[in-house]
Amino acid sequence: KTALSTLLRCFPCERLCGGCTVPPAPPRPPGALPPAMPPPRCHLSSATRLTPRTFHSYLPRSHRTYSCVHCRAHLAKHEELISKSFQGSHGRAYLFNSVVNVGCGPAEQRLLLTGLHSVADIFCESCKTTLGWKYEQAFESSQKYKEGKFIIEMSHMVKENGWD
Known about the structure:
By secondary structure, the chain is mainly beta. It has helices at about 5, 15, and strands at about 65-70, 75, 80-90, 90-95, 100-110, 115-125, 130-140, 150-155, 155-160.
């Protein structure tokens, strides 16, 4: 490879195809402004290109954390785990005191194994995968401790950082 082709590599698709060699732009007359929007320079379609992911919150690397299995966005610190003995829609689930990088849908009433609750589905802000739900309101006094807490299903989480 020449130095010029290395400089003109298409970085958005580098992970998919190793980087495209982009032809240089035609010269502009002195004093001319660059075009407002440069033409697409990659041979991959915009749907195929990898978009950079920016998470709202990053958890410290020194802590044991849980991340989204689909996009690796941080979800929770191990210290926020309340219980591992919950059942989600698709298997085992964990109850957390607080989570990060999740969005919340509208609340609705559901009859769960432990009674009637008002819950809102939660989803990963990065990849939009539904992860579990947030307990908005518990109607039985023995279940009030769940209010404001989050359920994340194990099938949507991966453990990271120091779980040896």
